Amino acid sequence: MEEKINVEELDERIHKEGLQIKKIADEISNVVVGQKYVIERMLIGLLADGHILLEGVPGLAKTLSVNSLANAIQAGFKRIQFTPDLLPADLIGTMIYNPQKSDFNVKKGPVFTNIILADEINRAPAKVQSALLEAMAEKQVTIGDTTYQLPSPFLVMATQNPIEQEGTYALPEAQLDRFMLKLQIVYPGIEDEKIILDRMTSKEKIKTKPVLTLDDIQKAKDLVHEVYIDQKVKDYIVDIVFATRQPEKYGLDNIKPLISIGSSPRATINLTLASKAYAFLQGRSFVIPEDIKTIGMDVLRHRIIITYEAEAESLKSDDIIKQIFSEIPIP
Question: What are the structural domain ranges in the chain?
């Protein structure tokens, strides 16, 4: 009987907090048109403490979406344009010599904020991407001999342009694995495009208004961790991830030659956390298998390294993931 009361209480709290978080999505939608998928996934990353990689052609409001999110929750925001001549010090900061005092002062870089927009991240060389790696993984950076904690929340949202290869540096697999989600953004529909035309050519510019505080976000994040996930659903998640490593054990012999490297344990962790956040946004206090399937593509697509054979057949990791989800039994 006590357990039932607790569940009902949790449902009520999640419903209440979910309505608060919905205010963020509504406010961003006032500025960003036709990107409901992107807005929802950004909220998942925010609630589950997961970094996001946004991939799409120019002009799809990637930068505007991230900036609008920061404004809506009154978070610190910095946009860093990644270029081939960017240095690690430009990102994390450096030691500045003070001749008057004959010592060094620390000048902190733009990474010391809540939300970082790493614009066109694949245009910077490996040493700059590596500098971002510690910040993403450990929520801290080292300048000189001292390690500094980054503010909470700390979220990296990086964009990359898939249509240009000249002058770009492919992200290392280790860094790709640090991103909880990889989103593939598509063009808006005709009706949305008409709304965009009217809004962006109007004299009055719509701006995002603050609707919540960082304290409100922390309360919601704490509640996301309380979302229940049954052992059978946990086993389902593990089976999905293991099928990317040992597909033959799940009757998927045909995709074994297509996978060079399967997903790491971070995939298991992030799929669980993202599914909890997704269930929370749906107003539920528990995760169902459909949540895993809904969010799974975004969690797994950048964690599977395909073989040359797969590339020769014009297959992508998305095609492999779809087959895995279609073959693994749902609990």
Answer: 2-203+211-221, 227-327
Phi, psi of 131 (to 5 degrees): -65, -35
* Strand intervals (E) in the chain: 51-55, 77-81, 93-98, 103-108, 115-119, 140-143, 146-149, 155-160, 179-184, 259-261, 305-306
Pick from 193, 170, 224, 190: which is nearest to 21 by CA?
224
* Inter-residue contact 88 to 129 (CB < 8 Å): no
Contact 238, 293 (CB under 8 A): no
In the predicted structure, residue 256 carries a pLDDT above the cut 70: yes
Take residue 6 and report the two structure tokens written for it. 């607790």
Chain length of the chain: 331
User: With a threshold of 0.85, does the pTM exceed it?
Assistant: yes
Q: Mind listing the pLDDT tens digit for each residue in 36-79? A: 899 999 999 999 999 999 988 777 788 888 899 999 999 999 99
CB contact set of 86 (below 8 Å; sequence gap of 6+): 80, 124, 125, 128
Q: Residue 89 has which token pair?
A: 């010090």
Does the structure show a pLDDT above 60 at 1?
no
Q: Does an H or E element contain 231, and which?
A: helix 231-245
As a whole number of angstroms, the distance between CA 241 and CA 99 comes to 56
Average pLDDT over every residue of 146-161: 88
Q: Are 36 and 302 in contact (CB under 8 A)?
A: no
CA-to-CA distance for 139 and 197, rounded, in angstroms? 40
Give DSSP secondary structure letters for 115-173: EEEEETGGGS-HHHHHHHHHHHHHSEEEETTEEEEPPSS-EEEEEE-TT--TT--PPPH
SS3 92: helix
CATH architecture of 2-203+211-221: 3-Layer(aba) Sandwich (3.40)
Q: Strands 305-306 and 259-261, how do they pair?
A: antiparallel
> CATH classification of 227-327 is 1.10.8.80, yes or no?
yes
